[in-house]
Specification:
63% helix; homotetramer; DNA-binding; 3-stranded antiparallel beta sheet
Chain lengths: 130, 130, 130, 130
DNA sequence: GTGGTCTAGACCACG
DNA sequence: GTGGTCTAGACCACC
């Protein structure tokens, strides 16, 4: 499970953590019944404050994606995969829609927008391979 | 010149105003030497506090897009079109990159991402035509 | 009498006009009893609003540098030369003091400050010749 | 780190704060990675409204001199020293140029100008030593 | 606790 | 009328 956060991003860190757990469940990396890394471990790995991770975990349980097992950690629920796949799609679609909506209001020619998308798509995929 | 802001957006209002003026100059809607709508007028139109618009205008002059003419208003500079076209591209590219980056980390299959982009592109174009 | 104003300067236009008249009297360009160019003429020459020139002229009469002759214009008073020479010195000294004071608080090495002064002195003199 | 502002100055308070932080970084008083005093602390020390200090801090992050760490404060960036040294030079040079430019248009003999500069330089250095 | 944004209304200088 | 600055105090997200 590759976790990393960008502290300088406008997206809050706890949301980045939240989204990444959701994405991990949606893709099957985290299986039902499996334990999510502990707050302390994850905080250490991401070099962020434990409170921040705890915040994300609280949201996870609110969403029904994971339940906390006293003394053991957070366990992925049975409903999680369906929930997370739906949510993943929503998140990604919303972000893309937002970006393209702004591109439209900028009156940047459609050709230029499409070119930018292709460039960034290649860039992102290239990075993923590297 | 259609200006509108979304108070609920995570993007600050003053940045939305800033971006829209930049877009207007980049697209030629606002010409060199022309006066930008006054703080008070724009504030009334957008139903936000004049200070918020003033904040955006101050940034405009810092960026060299407009100069304030005492007692007259803000005038679009000669360098503005070039500056704004470059900046518009940066803004749009940054948003697209952000969205696609998240899509990539979601491990959503590349095909699905591309399909989402095409859907949203069609939506936006359809709206523009309609 | 070379008059020019910099609209983008932080120094108000009316103060620039005021200072230049004072400097002209101090240097003898404008003699006692001579008529100062009219508000309209000066406004046209400087491409500024007549009100702005009028503002400067009002200050001139308040300072005792010139008196308005109904239907004729502003006339340089007998006390003007002495007043203006003193004031010129005050203005220039104050500005230089201010600039060097800031240089000191910046902790820029004294050598660098002196070098900057020399560079700018050469620059200004060079321009004056050109 | 001695901070002080002059409310009566034509230079806005937030710009004075901005310049002083830049000077502190340029001179090495504020080191890379170090935390800048908090908005509220600095506001109390300078006896100005926190918003005014916040305004200056926002500019700092826009300039890339410091990054805001959510809930922790503003941290001096790695690029800050170079940025600030360059900017310090610009600020000081601009003020000196402005002063000498006015001195030149005053037609005060070059000798007198140079004498004024030397007097003020001596004053400032004397103070620094004393 | 931290910084960031917004509303509100004051005052100023300039034209 | 214009833009610019400041104070004041609210609310928010984050740590």
């Amino acid at each position: 499970m590759l976790f990393d956060v960008q502290p300088s991003s406008p997206i809050p860190i706890y949301e980045q953590v939240l989204a990444q757990v959701i994405f991990a469940v949606a893709s099957g990396e985290l299986q039902v019944g499996e334990m999510i890394p502990s707050v302390r471990e994850l905080a250490a790995r991401l070099m962020v404050h434990p409170n921040t991770v705890a915040h994300a975990f609280k949201r996870l349980s609110e969403l029904g994606v994971a339940v906390s097992r006293h003394g053991k950690g957070m366990e992925v629920t049975a409903e999680a995969p369906a929930l997370c796949r739906a949510r993943r799609q929503d998140i990604v679609r919303a972000r893309i829609r937002e970006a393209l909506r702004e591109a439209a209001t900028s009156q940047l020619p459609a050709e230029d927008v499409r070119r930018l998308v292709e460039e960034e798509l290649a860039r992102v995929n290239g990075k993923a391979k590297g």
